[in-house]
Specification:
24% helix; six-stranded antiparallel beta sheet
Length: 338
């Protein structure tokens, strides 16, 4: 086959949709019996932190939920429907990429719960295993390790019944079990005793199948995933199928460039960049390319970098129209309209 995509979560499904629309020979393989395995387990309390959960070239997620903080099961249903027309082999665990004869491999295996290297962390329950029944923490002293969404989600769930709830980040140095109690050594505080300890220390990408010749696809949110998938697909189309990266023409004037970039800067996802290449009276705008690009004006959400022959010659971090117009006027050696 041309393409092997490993994983039928949002990343694998989005890549599968792009490949199908492009008419490529592909298959998505998934170790579970159905798509969206991660979101069938997480978040544990079944409330999503955002309503921005749509994938490209599919129905809007708002058809499934109009809540600001949707139920996770609504997302599972959305992803099931998105997956239905795709070429997916379920119950297919991949342990060796060499078993497949594929020209290109995309690793989209998602994330796994992460445990930090803290002595005694094995005594703690984890975000994945701790009970979600708040009555089980009634009258208990609970330490929650973590300062991310899973930690505060857990704290919010048990705070009404627990005797006390402490949420601590990286300052936990050691955990010791003494009978039914846990003694936690916390930097700057000392030793404190708890009845329960829960490690809500986030997730890390599953890198078990990583290979130098495979493409890795993932992200911390569905928004990041869908944009990363589109950028990777455009890269593959350009490199292997001769399909030019989509672009549009702008007037090569400081005021026109500043107006467009001031708007686009707030829309560019992390890890990607718009690239503006001047060509005479016009400039070509290539949106959301990998930030490794070193040509023309490279625009991220935080700055504009100007490259000439791959050499960085200027940077502008004020992404408002007037500063940008002065910047482009200087770099293009064109009088500033303002």
């Amino acid at each position: 086959m041309e393409y092997l995509v490993v994983g039928a979560g949002p990343a694998g499904l989005q890549m599968g949709r792009f490949l199908q629309l492009a008419g490529r020979d592909y298959v998505v393989v998934e170790e579970g019996p159905e798509p969206a395995g991660f979101f069938r387990r997480f978040p544990r309390h079944r409330v999503l932190s955002t309503d921005d959960n749509s994938l490209f070239d599919g129905p809007p997620f708002s058809r499934y939920s109009k809540r600001s903080f949707p139920d996770a099961d609504d997302l599972v249903q959305y992803l099931e429907d998105f997956a239905r027309p795709l070429n997916i082999r379920y119950n297919t665990a991949v342990t060796d990429l060499g078993e497949y004869d594929a020209e290109h491999v995309v690793i989209a295996t998602g994330q796994r719960p992460h445990l930090p290297n803290i002595p005694g962390i094995e005594h703690a329950a984890t975000y994945a295993s701790a009970s979600t029944d708040p009555t089980e923490y009634a009258g208990k002293r609970v330490l929650i390790i973590g300062r991310g969404r899973s930690a505060f989600e857990t704290a919010d769930n048990i705070s009404a019944t627990a005797r006390l709830t402490h949420t601590v980040g990286r300052s936990v140095q050691r955990i010791v079990r003494e009978g039914d109690e846990f003694i936690a050594s916390i930097d700057g505080t000392g030793e404190l005793r708890y009845d329960r300890v829960i490690a809500c220390t986030g997730f890390r990408r599953d890198n078990a199948l990583d290979h130098p010749e495979a493409h890795v696809l993932g992200g911390d949110s569905i928004k990041a995933i869908r944009h990363a998938a589109r950028a990777l697909h455009r890269t593959l189309e350009a490199e292997h199928h001769g399909v030019p990266w989509p672009h549009r023409r702008l007037r090569n004037r400081p005021d026109a460039l500043a107006a467009t970039i001031a708007t686009r800067a707030g829309e560019i996802p992390d890890g990607l960049a718009d690239v503006v290449v001047p060509q005479g009276q016009h400039a070509l705008l290539y949106d959301e390319m990998p930030t490794t690009e070193r040509n023309g004006f490279v625009v991220t959400s935080t700055q504009v970098r100007h490259y000439r022959r791959n050499e960085l010659i200027a940077v502008e971090r004020r992404l408002h129209r007037k500063p940008l117009e002065r910047f482009f006027s200087q770099q293009l050696a064109v009088p500033c309209i303002a």
